[in-house]
Design goal:
Low-confidence stretches: none
Oligomer: single chain
Number of strands: 5
Number of helices: 13
Mean pLDDT: 85
Radius of gyration: 23 Å
Largest sheet: 3 strands, antiparallel
Structural class: mainly alpha
Length: about 270
């Protein structure tokens, strides 16, 4: 409608809309991206959002996009998850072939990018995250570099430089300077996030996964106090965010750096010997 209202007043207006019979009102489709970000403690926004379609006069369809398939089971309260439909669609990360097609379509009609350069962008991004936005960012930076150099063709060398520049931030340098155990903890957090789809974990969960990982690698395991001290060091460098440690094993942890940057930092370090 274009109206401006406070959050509380807006909720009342929407509640009235979806609870009032109006034969002339057309069905509304509500697309919600990053649903995970709305999962706070009370989850009142989620409750109302998924409750309105169930009303007799709601005429509302909600399509929600999240980073995990089992978000309702893992995070949502029963009163919220019970109002969800059963239709779920999984979207896998883009492969290098798909990324190559996406980049090529954006560059359609332009003869400035060499084919090898496009393929290199696609392969580098697919090996880390499969994020099309990252691939386009690299292309944009490679174009800027070629323009500054007075060159009218973007080749493999420009893409390689752009890729290295984008993944040479202070955080990546900090990851490379971490101890072996600290790097392993970061890798465990990345693996945990990929496994659960929820970008938050606890000290207890990470401690258990670390023990398993260290035993598998044949490396000496760490004590709980040692793990907590390591978490504190990584939090001090802002590579991860931590609640106050007074919560003990239930202390919540989040990464403060993109998982693909951790993958890149550690992968390139291994390749460099």
């Amino acid at each position: 409608t274009g109206e401006k209202a406070t959050a509380e007043h807006a909720m009342k207006l929407l509640d009235k809309r979806f609870n009032t019979k109006d034969p002339k009102r057309v069905t509304t489709i509500f697309l919600v991206d990053e649903l995970d970000m709305l999962c706070n403690r009370k989850q009142s926004v989620l409750y109302n959002m998924f409750d309105w379609p169930s009303k007799p006069h709601g005429k509302l369809i909600v399509i929600a996009i999240a980073n995990t398939m089992d978000l309702p089971e893992r995070v949502m309260m029963n009163r919220v998850s019970s109002r969800l439909g059963l239709t779920r669609q999984t979207f896998q990360p883009y492969t290098h072939t798909q990324l190559q097609t996406i980049v090529a379509s954006r560059l359609e009609g332009l003869q400035v990018f060499q084919q090898d350069a496009i393929q290199l962008v696609a392969r580098k991004v697919a090996s880390l995250s499969g994020d099309a936005r990252r691939a386009l960012d690299i292309c944009r930076r490679a174009t800027e570099m070629a323009e500054v150099a007075g060159q009218d063709k973007i080749g493999v060398q420009h893409v390689t430089r752009a890729h290295m520049e984008m993944f040479s931030s202070p955080k990546i340098l900090a990851i490379r300077s971490c101890t072996k155990y600290e790097q392993m903890l970061l890798k465990v957090m990345v693996a945990e996030f990929h496994r659960t789809g929820v970008e938050e974990t606890t000290v207890g969960a990470i401690f258990r996964e670390m023990q398993t990982c260290l035993r598998t690698e044949g490396v000496e395991t760490m004590s709980m106090p040692g793990t907590v001290a390591m978490v504190a060091r990584l939090a001090a460098t802002r590579l991860l965010l931590s609640e106050h440690i007074k919560h003990g094993l239930e202390t919540k942890l989040r990464l403060n750096v993109a998982t693909e940057e951790i993958n890149f930092a550690l992968k390139s370090q291994e390749e460099g010997g």
